Amino acid sequence: MHGVTTNASSTLKIQLAPGSYQVQDEQSLIRRAQQRDQEALTQLYEANFDRIYRYVALKIGDRFEAEDITQQVFINAIESISRFKWQGTSFSAWLYRIAHNQIVDYLRRKTKRPMVPLEKAATKSSSDDPSKTAELNMDIAKVAEATKRLTKAQQEVISLRFASELSIAEAAEVMRKSEGAIKALQHSAILSLRKILAVE
User: Mapping DSSP to helix (H, G, I), strand (E, B) and coil, where does residue 25 land?
Assistant: First the structure.
C-alpha cells in the first residue's frame, strides 16, 4: 500500500525506549501509520523526536524555537506520510529532509520577529548550580556560533553526526553523498572548529 514494499533487505529496526515499546519492523510501522494508526504514529514520533530536535537546535541556535520547529516537522510528516514510499530513502532520511526544509523556512522568516539568543535559552541541566548552568550555556553558545562559520555542508554534517548522532551511512543518506565524502567533510569541519575555538 502506498508504494511500501516488503523487501527484507530494506527492512530496518527501530529500537525504542526500553520497557516502553517493543522493537518494531519499520516498514510494518510505516504501513500502519499510513492508515492513521495512532499507536504507530506515536511510536514513530517517540523514536525520532530527540534526534530531530537536536539537529534543529544546533542548526538554528535557539532551543525554544527548535521545539516549535520540531513539532511542525512531525505535523508535516503526519500530514504527508501517506505519500512516503520506500524508494531508496529511509523514513529517518525523509524526516531530516522535512526538518531541513522547516529550518530554511524559519531562517527566511527570522528577521521579521525577535529571537532569543541561545545563551539566554533554558538549559536542560541536572545541576542546580547557577554558575555551572551559566558555564554550560556559554559553551553551547560558543560552539553554535563557531559552527555558523563553517561551510553549509560542514554545518550539516556536524549537525547530523553529533547533534543527531547519526552514523556515517545515515548522514550520507540524508545528505545524498558518499560515505567517503561525509568522512572528509566531518574531518575538515572538526579541524575548522578547533581552529575557530582555539582563537576564541
Answer: strand
Of 118 and 43, more confident: 43
For 24, the enclosing helix (H) or strand (E) is strand 24-25
Cα torsion through 152, 154, 167, 2, rounded to 10: 10
Which parts of the chain fold into alpha helices (H)?
Answer: 26-34, 38-60, 63-80, 91-109, 130-147, 152-158, 168-175, 179-199
CB atoms < 10 A from the CB of 200, how many? 8
Residue 18 is classified by DSSP as T
Strands 13-14 and 24-25: antiparallel
Paired strand residues for 13: 25
Segment holding 14, helix H or strand E: strand 13-14
Copy the grid coordinates of residue 57: 537546535
83/141 Cα distance (integer angstroms): 38
pLDDT band at 161 (very low <50, low <70, confident <90, very high): confident
Mean pLDDT of the region 15-32:
59
User: Can you tell me the distance from the alpha carbon of 163 to that of 157, in angstroms, rounded to the nearest whole number?
Assistant: 10
Q: Exposed, middle or buried by CB within 10 Å (0-12, 13-18, 19+), for 160?
A: buried
Q: At the topology level of CATH, where does 1-116 sit?
A: Rna Polymerase Sigma Factor; Chain: A (1.10.1740)
Average pLDDT, the chain: 75
